[in-house]
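Re: weekly structure request thread

Next one in the queue (295 aa):
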Amino acid sequence: MNRNRLRLAIQKSGRLAEETMRLLQAMGLSFSKSRDGLYFRVNELPLDVLRVRDDDIPGFVGEGVADLGIVGENVFQEEKITCPEIGGVKISRDLGFAKCRLDLAVPEAFDYKSLQDLKGLKISTTYPSLLREFTEKQGIPVNIIEMHGSVEVSTRLGIADAICDIVATGSTLEANGLKAVETLLKSQAILIQAPGNLNGEKEKAFERFLNRMDGALASRETKYIMLNAPKNSLAKIKKLLPGAGAPTIIPLDGTNENFAVHAVCREAVFWETMENLKAVGASAILVVPIEKMMN
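Done, posted below.
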């Protein structure tokens, strides 16, 4: 691998890996793969992609093995507590996907009122450092049991009294007779950057990479909306357009009574939004995705 090229470390498998690859593809990047599939060479930028375990990514970036990494904030914050070399690693972007929470959860029958109820209890987790930091700050002595999977069944097996685990929808907790009672961390995928400055060529490549990433992220929720409206409805319609700047307003059929309205909406456009637009006089409402965007 050429060290004059940027290196990006990403998760090699799992939901975060899939969403990361979709983001990179939305940035217009294509890949030449190594035989083992653990190393990709990007064709459009001087960038190499390393596919590794997610908990190795912060260390790779901190030690300079990779210049950049895409990882869950939960993993980054856990590793940051125990690994001094990660201290200088910077969070460059929140990426808005792979959202989840690190929650404390107890059995449904547990009469939970406050953190004080956890004093002296056994709590199982795959995030011992974050849990320890949280309970020590709260002054709640607990017995932490580190596990490497299947945390949600530990209460049923009698291993622990409560758990601290990643929660996305809460369905896994519910299926195991658990309820979330406290949130330690709200997490999402993040782009992290190695300490120090990049050299000239890498810096240029990084700027191009960020421009593409920002454009791809912006276009995910951004929609282009087109509609027709009478003149007396325009003021109300402009207020209803979500996250839009000044829309383009064009007279229809050479009159000053009916207009076409075009706008870039930087927030999600829901059915309720369209119904509200129709209620104030809009018609022929069309909402289309934006494939690419650059400010």
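The two ends are 33 Å apart (CA to CA). The first helix runs from residue 15 to 26.
Next request, please.
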